[in-house]
Amino acid sequence: MRTIGVIGLGNMGRGMALSLRRRGFAVMGYDPAPAAREASAADGIEIADGTSALWPACDAVVLSLPTPEVVEAVLLGSGGPLHGAKTGLLVIDTSTSDPDVTRRISTALAPAGIDLIDAPVSGGPKGAHAATLTMVIGGSDRAVALAEPVLAAMSATRVHVGGVGAGHVTKLANNLLCAAHLITAAEAVRMAKDAGVDPERLLAGINAGSGRSGVTQVNFPTWVLSGAFDSGFTMKLMRKDVRLAENLVAALGLDLPLSQAAARLWRESADGIPDEADFNAIVTLQLDPNA
Ligand code: NAD
């Protein structure tokens, strides 16, 4: 593995491209948005004319794309790897995506000798730049072993959870929990505030007890109580993740009442909280950030 492509140079992809280059890989990137291309070019990343230029030049291509629809268009569309790729190309999808779409794409690429692994990430743009991301990985043992040097250049923690698609199932489960925890933590803070307990002291108590979560330990102190709301992860992307989790629950024919209630609150929040807002803004269903 020497030359790595990165498709999608947004908040996450830009940092991953830089982390790969720091580890000594030759990195080529592509993004249709001029501002994203210019920012990465200014970082010294070589920018390709389009996706079709990347497949024949790269040993592995990392995707960091907004939706499953975009991932499918990039991989199975006319500018995709089936129309000319280096022998043994490995595709690493770090987007948060739909496991069924991922499995379908993998099946379509396999006859051309192209391996796909799903390696969605946690850790935000900061983690992407610092190469401290956590990855939950789906793929064959062989493909995951092949990808290891590339994955290690972008992440500090990697958990291989199963075959193709298992990474995306795990990431949707993780983000469904995070989305629900943001709502339940905001409700707990609201209750305690109205009962006369200071939110910072409340969190100190919860974080020493069994009700703690990543949301109470990281999100509330870093982005909510500070008033910063600048995590680099938008309402639009979290709504997409919750929608994908909701679709998976429905496709499996499951009745999961708390998950479904959380999904409904995230969906309905589109009326009052814009797509561009930080995803932690969901707490404003219960809390006034200016109070
Ligand atoms: P982003 O919107 O900042 O970046 C996505 C980039 O993809 C954009 O620059 C866009 O122009 C580009 N793009 C759109 N269509 C394209 C196409 N056809 N070909 C190539 N590029 C295309 O989003 P992000 O925050 O970087 O997130 C990327 C993925 O990572 C998403 O799936 C998201 O859910 C996931 N994720 C994000 C975070 C975070 O904290 N931001 C954390 C974990 C996972």
From TrEMBL:
Pfam families: NAD_binding_11, NAD_binding_2
InterPro entries associated with the record: 3-OH-isobutyrate_DH-rel_CS, 6-PGluconate_DH-like_C_sf, 6PGD_dom2, 6PGDH_NADP-bd, HIBADH-like_NADP-bd, HIBADH-related, NAD(P)-bd_dom_sf
Residues covered by the 3-hydroxyisobutyrate dehydrogenase-like NAD-binding domain: 165-284
Residue intervals of the 6-phosphogluconate dehydrogenase NADP-binding domain: 3-162
Active site positions: K171
Entry keyword annotation includes Oxidoreductase: yes
Gene Ontology molecular function terms on file: NAD binding; NADP binding; oxidoreductase activity, acting on the CH-OH group of donors, NAD or NADP as acceptor
Keywords: NAD, Oxidoreductase
Biological-process GO terms, alphabetical: organic acid catabolic process
Annotated PANTHER family: 3-HYDROXYISOBUTYRATE DEHYDROGENASE, MITOCHONDRIAL, 3-HYDROXYISOBUTYRATE DEHYDROGENASE-RELATED
Name of protein: 2-(Hydroxymethyl)glutarate dehydrogenase
Organism whose genome encodes this protein: Methylobacterium frigidaeris
Species classification: Bacteria, Pseudomonadati, Pseudomonadota, Alphaproteobacteria, Hyphomicrobiales
Gene this chain is encoded by: Hgd_1
